[in-house]
Fold this sequence. Notes:
The protein is mainly alpha-helical. It has a single domain, classed as Growth Hormone, Chain: A, CATH 1.20.1250. It has helices spanning 2-17, 22-42, 47-74, 81-110, 115-136, 157-178. The longest helix has 30 residues, at 81-110.
Amino acid sequence: MLFAGALVMQYPVGWLSDRMDRRQLIFGAAALGSASCAAGWITGGALAPLMAAAFFAGGVTTPLYALFLAYTNDALSPEDMPAASGGLVFTFGLGAIAGRMVTGWAMQVFGPFAFWPVLGALFAAIALYALYRMTQTTTLPVDQTDSYLSVLPTTSSVAVEAAGAWAAEQAATERDSDLPR
Length: 181
């Protein structure tokens, strides 16, 4: 259900990302993830609520990565986008390693349902950071942001570089078409 949610919710999150402040969407997705984890933790093992919680928690996990990438790229020149993407891939990799270790330790000490509070705490931290960012910076108007591209955190560096080159070409094409003739 985690993966089914990620597959199904990628489109609506991407659609919303192109139409609203991405910081608000990051906050909303992380808050939904945190609430889903709380629901997963309190289910007591009942299958239907556990599956629903897993669907929504997984449904915001993968789109959050692409939202972070899109939000980061909104503030960068096309030439800086590949380096930022590489930094996000590196950060994701560190989180993938540390997250598994912390979650495994919590599940060993507190039982299998400790998965939910660990993941929920991470979602809550992301939501709080998104709120903080809303107080620190202004956002670009929606019509000045680039389109959301679904990029998985496991994407190779070659694909990240190619996506950055494509974004730079698109920006140059748009810039050239806006010049008076």
